[in-house]
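FIELD: query
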Amino acid sequence: MRSKNNYIVCVIACILLCACHHLDPEYGVDFSKMPNNGKTFVPYSEQTCDVDTFNLSTDSSSAPQPHKASSMNLTDVARGVVESFTSYKIRQVCGTYYSIDLQGQEVRLSGAVFYPIHGRIHNVIICPHFTVAANYEVPSMTCPLEATLAALGYVVVMPDYIGYGASVDRVHPYLQQDLTAHNVADMALAVRPFLANRRIMVESEEIIIVGYSQGGAAAMFTQRLLETDKEYKGLFKIKKTYCGGGPYNVAHTYEYCMVHDKTGIPYAVPLLIVGMSEGMENPLDVASFFREPLKSHYEEWLKSKKYNGTQITAMIGEDNLSKILSPEGMDLTNPETQRLYKELQENALPSDYMPQTPMYIFHSKDDQTVPFINADEVRSQFERHAAGGPRIEYDFGHFGNHQQGFTKFLFKMLNTL
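FIELD: result
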């Protein structure tokens, strides 16, 4: 196994070396001539990410101080990849842009753009991130593992989402899928004039969309938005979308956890209930869903953005739903629970959607955090509409738990970028 891992690391290192060639500035996409729908990404800080140490080194007193990387665990293989990027540096630019909130009102959001300091740039990658709980974990505050894609010759666009970064005073509308897709797409549009102003040349105008977990669902819903929404259709050419371990049907995910009385990510359950409530005209009685100690502390634990998922899970102290949720919250006949379930259904992937551009869907059958039923149902749906459609690749197997699947997804994606 170790020799195989070393081989993979060597292959990625070779890819990196091949990417490190300067591009003649006369060749590339002219972003000044591409539509941005009036969106503009306004930088407020910059720094260099040292990929070899996976930390941030500040070069300005006004830049955010380094924070630890995201709370998702890395395997030895993933760490080996990072180590293979010896002393290679990528630029992180944090900035703000405008999008919409749940009420359709304009909101100022933030995110980060990563790109290589030297070398050829192949495409822009739109990369919505996986679930986090603490504000210091978002792209504008740290260097996510996905940002290392920049070291392979890509511009990586990573929004913070509503409720983090510039909008940290708001509640995060967790898994409000259409809204998240709008926020992601608006940042991608806003980055275009930024790239033009920096004279950052990219070889192809085709974008790539990449996401895992919450980011996997956001990637799929973003592709759907760009293909079907009248305001966004035709603004981007999509080369391929990579969706890994995503909750494409949050209603069935919730049902699965209820039936099995267990979740691999305990803090995400209250986060989901709070996020769904945010999207409802008549908000839920959120506290009625929880047992103690969560009932008395969920406002502080979830809305302050001070604590990461590991810390919140430890404070909850349970992973059985029946010990996290109240009897009313576990009762699907309870009127409040029925209202929650309806909101969950409204945030599932529409049953008539069929991708119009290529897509790669990865999911581990061993995943207890985002159960495999999500990917299995998507496959059934797409196969019903597959005649004459684009190529959809399904990569399902026993790849370990949710975190282990993330590393495998990353490697498999790198093989076909």
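FIELD: remark
The radius of gyration is 21 Å.
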